[in-house]
Amino acid sequence: MAALQIETLETGKGKMCKARDKISVHYTGWLTNGKKFDSSLDCGSPFDFTLGTGVVIPGWDQGIEGMKVNEKRKLTIPSKLAYGEFGSGAIPPSATTIFEITLLAIK
Fold first, then answer.
1. How many folded domains does the chain comprise?
2. Is there a contact between 57 and 89 (Cβ–Cβ < 8 Å)?
3. Among 53, 57, 70, 82, which residue's CB has the most CB atoms within a 10 Å radius?
4. What is the rounded radius of gyration, in angstroms, for the C-alpha atoms of the chain?
């Protein structure tokens, strides 16, 4: 079974985010074939949520925890930690997804 892969692209500074922190991120998501399916940058506004509460896919909760402000990570997320066997919108069933996420703020 594939596991979540985390690659730090740019290091951040300050305290690390943890479960229950309210955070703000910019993200872009691709399928493994390179097709972009979503990006907060396209709509020009960051995405805010509370980490570790199940608001986002499990791969995000696991892959973002421990990031510092201005840190950028690439997460390669297997379907079991993403959209599963049913997919979602432009994401087909059982798809591995790739996200680049930048932590903008811990609120």
1. 1
2. no
3. 82
4. 13
Please say if 99 is a catalytic residue: yes
Q: Please identify which of the residues 21, 38, 64, 77 carries the catalytic annotation.
A: 38
HSE-up of 30 (CA within 13 Å, CB side)? 11
Domain CATH number, residue 19: 3.10.50.40
Q: What does the pLDDT profile of the chain (107 residues) look like in tens digits?
A: 579 999 999 999 999 999 999 999 999 999 999 999 999 999 999 999 999 999 999 999 999 999 999 999 999 999 999 999 999 999 999 999 999 999 999 99
User: In Å, how far from its chain's centre is CA 39?
Assistant: 11
Residue of 23, 27, 64, 77 with catalytic role? 27
User: Which amino acid appears at position 66 of this protein?
Assistant: G
Question: Is 37 part of the annotated catalytic residue set?
Answer: yes
User: Would residue 83 show up in a list of annotated catalytic residues for this protein?
Assistant: yes
